[in-house]
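Fold this sequence, please.
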Amino acid sequence: MKGSGMKFHVKVWGGLLLFLLSCLSLASAQDKFRLKPGARGKLCLGCHSEFEEKLRKSSVHSPVKGGECSECHNPHASSHGKLLAADGRKVCVICHESIIPDKAVSNHSVVKEGRCNRCHDPHASDVPFNLVKAGKGLCLDCHQDLAKGMERAKFKHSPVERDCLPCHDPHGSSEAKALLKRDLASLCSSCHPMDQPDFLKKHLNYPVGKTDCSSCHEVHGSNREGLLQENLHGPVSNRMCGTCHEASSSSTPFKTKRLGYELCRSCHGNMLRDTFSRSRIHWPLLDREGCLSCHRPHASSQKGLLKDEKKSLCATCHADTVLTQAKLAQREKQEREEARGKVIKGALTHLPIQEGKCDSCHASHGSDGMFLLKGSSVIELCGTCHDWSKHTTHPMGPKVVDPRNRNRSLDCLSCHRAHGTGNRYLILLPTVTELCVQCHKQYKR
């Protein structure tokens, strides 16, 4: 028993000795790799001296100010650029996770895409909140069309002249579209009391306090007095709201006297008669919304009182066509750059679509042609831009039968697709040879 007890004590003390030795070894290793006293951010500045100047700026990112570079960067290696501890789109939300409100109605695209450094300097700035530029100038760097419109505007909106933030939340809004802090009516009423007699008189006593002010007004600036939009509907410009709406004293003052296109018929009867005489009608016209599917009833920045510029308006229903054209345009640009000045024959995109001129080929209300094409002849329509007879003698027309389908005649769309196919010259198959041998089988190899 004594021998076995001795062996037990030897094992216990031997184990403790090994444990102590391992601890000493670990402590020695830790000392070897331990950062220098007081190092932290100062150690980084030993190589990255250009950041010393940033520390003297008025707005310094708190991890930078505290010398905690490793809060965002991995000091040894990273699978992300600039040794970031996470993907650039995610590293900011590690700390700023609530920057986009829950159930946001609208998000700022650069925030959603994680491009925080588009507006903020991640280290330091002389502008509050580490912004790269002060005031509305930062916003207008991206929103250049808006900037041009504001510059041209004869009548300015004073809050817009000062800054964008009185009305917009730069990250996201849980209250309204377009990053507005509140719905437009309550936002406008904070500066414009809508129950005052003068205000009501200007609006013919209609209770506009809970309506969308932008249906008539251009909130960023206008060339019309009262910030009215550029193009006004006749009844609005003539102060004849009762033409379309019930009286202001009615219990339902904004209710229209008729629904759909029937409301517009009294003034636009000739257009509607011509449209309904056609064999094909653009379906939104027959929808419950009628003309309002594409047009605004009071005012618009677009001609014809359109809701948006033509390309975007058509894209609300025909997004596939516009998206395909955008992708093909990008591919076309890339291929031109790779060609380094060499001529590439044959377009991938159709210019009218790229320019947003869908109505160059299509009738917006109704037509006798397929796909609402203007006129009944595809050949004549294409010929308004493409004088095909000068570069081809290929037979076409109603008397020329398509060998692939005896029920159809040959026209431009027999070989081309106006909205693009991804092939040069908008042809149906990758090469001209592959296309031609579909009919001319004797030349197939």
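The longest helix spans residues 2-33. The chain has a mean pLDDT of 88.
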